[in-house]
Amino acid sequence: MVVIEELERAQDALARCLRECDRAVAFTGAGLSTESGIPDFRSSDSAWRRHPPVPFKDFLADADARALAWRRKFAMDDLTAGARPGRGPRALARLMADDMLGDIVTQNIDGLHESAGAPAERIVELHGNGGYAACLSCGARHELADLRPRFEATGLAPECACGGPVKSATIAFGQAMPQEALRRARRASLNCDLYLAIGSSLVVYPAAAFPVLAKENGAALVIVNREPTPLDAAADLVLRGDIGSIFAPFESCSLRASTS
Ligand code: APR
User: Which residues contact 173 (CB under 8 A, 6 or more apart)?
Assistant: First the structure.
């Protein structure tokens, strides 16, 4: 494992990895969105500590827990309303447009990869999407703009026309992972020779198993994060620093053009 902390050296090393690989995949976490004002989960000042997600079994068991989950969800939405993609997601979208990056496997629920211009069909959302809701019984989609006024007027957690509980379309602790997303993430992780794990503490499984899978399958594993992670020792390269700063050159300058 090589650790680089100096910014320009980290940028050069990243450029070299991207130029030399045949197919790169990015695996992203909440650290990619902090520049946009969206808190990550495990930093000590995280707003998630004030509005912690309600575990799935509590959500299922109890109408009061469902109402609490919705109160916290809307409180977090207010904190992050209008967030725009930072330099990290913008650079990844640019690398995709330049054909220097294949897929993005993300744990994030904020939709910033898509807002940055990455094509939806090449983004795998492992933990769902917080931009809408779905009925847990029949799967019908519900829009937050419809649910919120009714919730605020009644204080009652929303229910579907079928009678099922409606939940934000994210994966709560204890909730089954989406099988299609897992399949796509596995395929992407096995079909690359460079795996960039960016802005994740890499402690939440099964998501964190994908960088391990890619590495075991022969890909070079590069971790970009400001703090150490438990997978650093398994990585080929660790770029330790601020994601926005490390990725800044890649959002405006075509790596492809600079190599030709
Ligand atoms: N630059 C570099 N690293 C950063 C930056 C930044 N600007 N901002 C935050 N980080 C780092 C943090 O130091 C931390 O190590 O990003 C990492 C984010 O880790 P977590 O908060 O644990 O987020 P993540 O790994 O995405 O969490 C995984 O946990 O609660 C669940 O479902 C939730 O998808 C989430 C999962």
Answer: 53, 55, 56
Mean pLDDT of 114-133: 97
- Residue 75: the pLDDT is 92
Catalytic residues: 127
pTM: 0.95
Specify whether 161 is located in the same domain as 204.
no
Q: How many distinct structural domains can be found in the chain?
A: 2
Is the CB of 200 within 6 Å of ligand 1?
Answer: yes
Any ligand 1 atom below 6 A from CB of 127: yes
Q: Are residues 1 and 71 in the same domain?
A: no
CB of 143 sitting under 6 A from ligand 1: no
Identify which of 126, 127, 225 to mutate to test ligand 1's pocket (most ligand atoms within 8 A of the CB): 225
Co-location of 247 and 148 in the same domain: no
Residues 67 and 97 in one domain: no
CA atoms within 13 A on the CB side of 130: 20
Summarize pLDDT for 148-182 with one digit per residue, the tens: 999 999 999 999 999 999 999 999 999 999 999 99
